[in-house]
Amino acid sequence: MFVHPINPLFDEHSEILILGSFPSVKSREQGFFYGHPQNRFWRIMSRICGEAVPASIDEKTRLILDNHFALWDVIHSCEITGSADSSIKNVQANDLSEILEKANIRQIFLNGKKAEALYNKYIKYNISIPSAVLPSTSPANASWSEDRLFEYWSKSINEAKNEE
Asked: Is 126 among the residues known to form the active site?
C-alpha cells in the first residue's frame, strides 16, 4: 500500500484545480508532481502560461501558483504496481476540502481517464464545482502528440479562465 507523499499545491489565489490519479514512481522519488521527464505536463503548462519550461521544484511551484492553478491527485492511498494506472486498486481518495475551503476553485480538470473515473467514483458527489477530463499528459498516452495535447489543454483552460 502506497500513501500519497506530496502535499497539495495551492494558495488562496488558485482558481483551477488539476487532479491526476496518483504520483508515478519518479514523482514519488522526487517528492513532486509529474516528475517523469517524458511526462508532458510541465511542457504543456509552460506553453499555456507563456513561460519557460520549469526545471526545479521551486520553478514548477512558481509556475503553478503565479498562474492561479492548484495541483493534487485524486488518490490518497492505493496499491499500485510501478506507475501503471491500470494496476491501481484498494483506493482511498484524497479529501479536497482544505483546497476548496482556502482557495477560490472555479473549475476542476482531471488529467486523464483514470483520474476522471476515480474522481467520479469517490469524490464528485460531494462537490458542486464543474469538472472536465483532459487527455493525459503521461507518455503512456502516445496517441496524443504534444502539440495536440497543448491545443486541447490550452482551449479548455483558457475557456475556464475566461468564465470569470
From this structure: no
